[in-house]
Design goal:
Radius of gyration: 15 Å
Structural class: alpha/beta
Bound molecules: flavin mononucleotide
CATH class: Alpha Beta
Number of helices: 5
Shape: globular
Number of strands: 6
CATH topology: Rossmann fold
CATH superfamily: Flavodoxin domain
């Protein structure tokens, strides 16, 4: 089973990338995990959508080959990061590579609202008439994320790890 991990932060020090590493450590031997190189995706531009840069052709291939998508987003100013919105805009044009694709949403913020505002917006975009993804029922919001993961992707909080495992196990089961 192929799972594509999309992390909505391109920062090297990203806390959400630490969550992505947790998936590598805990599910890398159970499913095939691939990470979308979001930093390569240019800003969306209608002028080039029919003859796009190679990064867009590759991005479409990543989605086409995935049975499901784990989308891990930070919250930036009560919304999803612009880089993630650009990606979703690309997926909504020419070739609808997220149409009907199951997406498991999660994310971590350093604050107490735990990306809930970003995920409300993410769900709305994913279910839009252009993107038409299938959002998985369970989503996970992680507060004070900087205290809950180390750089290697170990989860330091038992309850959070329990939620992550339950969510991912249920997501994988829903794909088979
Ligand atoms: C531009 C910017 C905007 C932010 N806005 C929010 C916000 O609206 N809500 C929130 O909980 N945290 C916010 N934060 C703090 C983030 O939760 C924190 O920086 C987190 O580590 C970002 O995820 P990342 O490290 O994966 O990029 C913001 C951070 C940045 C850099």
């Amino acid at each position: 089973m192929n799972i594509l991990i999309v992390t909505g932060s391109i920062s090297q020090q990203s806390n959400n990338k630490k969550i992505a590493r947790w998936f590598d450590k805990n599910y890398g031997d159970k499913v095939t995990l691939t990470h979308l190189p979001l930093a390569d995706v240019p800003m969306y531009n209608m002028d080039i959508e029919n003859d796009p840069p190679q990064a867009i052709t590759e991005m479409r291939r990543y989605f086409n080959e995935a049975d499901g998508v784990v989308m891990i987003t930070p919250e930036y100013n009560y919304s999803i990061p612009g880089v993630l919105k650009d990606l979703l805009d690309w997926t909504s044009r020419v070739e609808l590579v997220l149409k009907g694709k199951p997406v498991f949403m999660l994310g971590g913020s350093t604050g107490r609202f735990a990306t809930i505002r970003a995920q409300i917006i993410l769900k709305q975009v994913l279910e839009s008439a252009g993107v038409m993804a299938r959002v998985f029922d369970r989503s996970i919001q992680i507060d004070t994320v900087h205290q809950k993961f180390n750089d290697e992707g170990d989860c330091l909080d038992e309850q959070t790890e329990k939620y992550l495992k339950r969510g991912m196990d249920e997501f994988i089961a829903s794909l088979s």
